[in-house]
Amino acid sequence: xxxxxxxxxxxxxxxxxxxxxxxxxxxxxxxxxxxxxxxxxxxxxxxxxxxxxxxxxxxxxxxxxxxxxxxxxxxxxxxxxxxxxxxxxxxxxxxxxxxxxxxxxxxxxxxxxxxxxxxxxxxxxxxxxxxxxxxxxxxxxxxxxxxxxxxxxxxxxxxxxxxxxxxxxxxxxxxxxxxxxxxxxxxxxxxxxxxxxxxxxxxxxxxxxxxxxxxxxxxxxxxxxxxxxxxxxxxxxxxxxxxxxxxxxxxxxxxxxxxxxxxxxxxxxxxxxxxxxxxxxxxxxxxxxxxxxxxxxxxxxxxxxxxxxxxxxxxxxxxxxxxxxxxxxxxxxxxxxxxxxxxxxxxxxxxxxxxxxxxxxxxxxxxxxxxxxxxxxxxxxxxxxxxxxxxxxxxxxxxxxxxxxxxxxxxxxxxxxxxxxxxxxxxxxxxxxxxxxxxxxxxxxxxxxxxxxxxxxxxxxxxxxxxxxxxxxxxxxxxxxxxxxxxxxxxxxxxxxxx
Amino acid sequence: xxxxxxxxxxxxxxxxxxxxxxxxxxxxxxxxxxxxxxxxxxxxxxxxxxxxxxxxxxxxxxxxxxxxxxxxxxxxxxxxxxxxxxxxxxxxxxxxxxxxxxxxxxxxxxxxxxxxxxxxxxxxxxxxxxxxxxxxxxxxxxxxxxxxxxxxxxxxxxxxxxxxxxxxxxxxxxxxxxxxxxxxxxxxxxxxxxxxxxxxxxxxxxxxxxxxxxxxxxxxxxxxxxxxxxxxxxxxxxxxxxxxxxxxxxxxxxxxxxxxxxxxxxxxxxxxxxxxxxxxxxxxxxxxxxxxxxxxxxxxxxxxxxxxxxxxxxxxxxxxxxxxxxxxxxxxxxxxxxxxxxx
Lengths: 499, 343
Hints:
Chain A is an alpha/beta fold. Chain A is 34% helix and 24% strand. Chain B has 14 helices and two strands, in the order H-H-H-H-H-H-H-E-E-H-H-H-H-H-H-H.
């Protein structure tokens, strides 16, 4: 029996089966790569392992003993620790304080032993940091560290907590080459110390450099596992990408018109360089890439959200200066952000108010708003996406994810844009709502809009888009005709391996 | 069960009470307060006294309405009382110099001066990106200092104050049975009701207050809206300044000292959340009335002035606790609610 054993784990969100019957084991001193596309269910597995989600079915055992976590602290106390970019750390506190947050060493004398023993804290921190070869002064404020150094601090924290299982979720996503080398060294060290390491990634160089075994997930199911030594990247790519496509992608071809949006030589000091693309009327341009490839950053820059970005934008052949989203919207270029909850909709406000907000200028008859006109607009566009709600005064926060997305998109329809950029429009919504969003994209192009579809889901890009631009590490690395492109080729380009 | 798509109704049923729950409760408390005081001193609820309270509340109402909109945007304007006093002084000096100037010149002039002072705030907040609380804290002191500079520390007293200004703010000057300040409060309520609840500006300010990031993504020009907002807040303070010094027949550096806190208190009592995004005209008006009623009622029932400020503070804290509670009860809608179908 392996040290950590997952058996038949399943988790559904509403009708969406995020993970179905996944099982694998992990031994001490072993690095297991859990690979799969975005949306394949990797993070759901991690969240079940770390006590964020409770599995619907299946068991997790440690040393043969079944464990159940009702919260992340329990998982952590059992020695399962996860390192990912979003881990909460305290920017204003020192590295040492971050390492020992909640368990500061205390002085025994004075005030009943309630004072922090700073000397001991810093000494302990130094010892722990040395374990991961991190040359960081423990008294440095965390905010002064690079992303890579923060990772090291997280790993050091995990080590100081006697973790048996270390889960690394896309640990190199924002690291430079040299920093990645450092991280590799630390992972090998963890392995040598007998930790069980679960590496979540879709970068093949990492998989081949570090892992002993692999498990591939696709659509929430395990589709393959084996020894790294007995496989190659071609085979893994086939496992990840190969699948039948249902009729959730009902692409209806639209007539292509003249070029409506041209983006030329967009660069940003740290995020992307020399990105150019164009979209024609009636065309869906797919933007594929791994998470962190810089796709959203480019789109946000085009939308006027990134003051440091440089580059030219032409709409309908006319050069336009977009300095703010307000400019972009005025020119007929709109952007539906990935982060629906925080930047897509104003959740506490009503459906009606959300839908009409960007177009109030057009709806206002004179100085005052007219409820009837607003209702007419909202009913029309909400109806077109078959939004489900009790009434238009319901607040958007009360709706399901799919319906929220419908509100987000319908508000832009009302503004009658020329180009619409959809950033991961179907992320985290169920199949039914997905189909509605896709159907609606078809409708958009039929009406002669240009659509940019940013997506990490390859089947979505391949079946909805006419052309596909692939981005990797801030640069466009390939362009494909969706009809003739092979999935393996696209994945290989995005991952940076030669197929 | 609802159909497979669409809505049962375009509008919510009982929307009024749902929207104005807090305000209705505060209004209830206000009535209770009045009844309680009347039990001990029946003349407190005589029409004459009630009208006096109204006249007394009018300027606070106008100020609270403007502040409400500012707080709704996640901001605050601490400089309003100083703006009021400075504008009052400047217009008062002009009225002193030219006693013949009519109110229809002086009042718009005050509005204009106040607007310019508001523009100073607006520039600090939008161009220099100084947080509103800091920017207006700074201009609050500056405006007060400028009063001293322009007046040389002199007062304008009732003999020197423009007769037109004094007459306008007097409870004895009547138009169709109401005092001018009462008319001003009515005009302010109507104007702000339309602005806050029925105009594009009000809707966008609310959106910026609830979620500035999302509002920006929707193409709302944040800086332009905030600029207008602080200019508006200043304009209201300036106009009120003219009426204020006319009413008390006094202009000096100490005029309306600390009044900005009463204005904010009226908003908080009226359920306007400092976190932004919430606020109604109804709430701000009831909050202002509540505050003034409390100030007027306490001496009537023989509560010493020393207790008054403390009791007002208690009322504010209770309102805050109550509003917090209201927010907490609502919580997240995770459970399935009829009509809010999950797909």
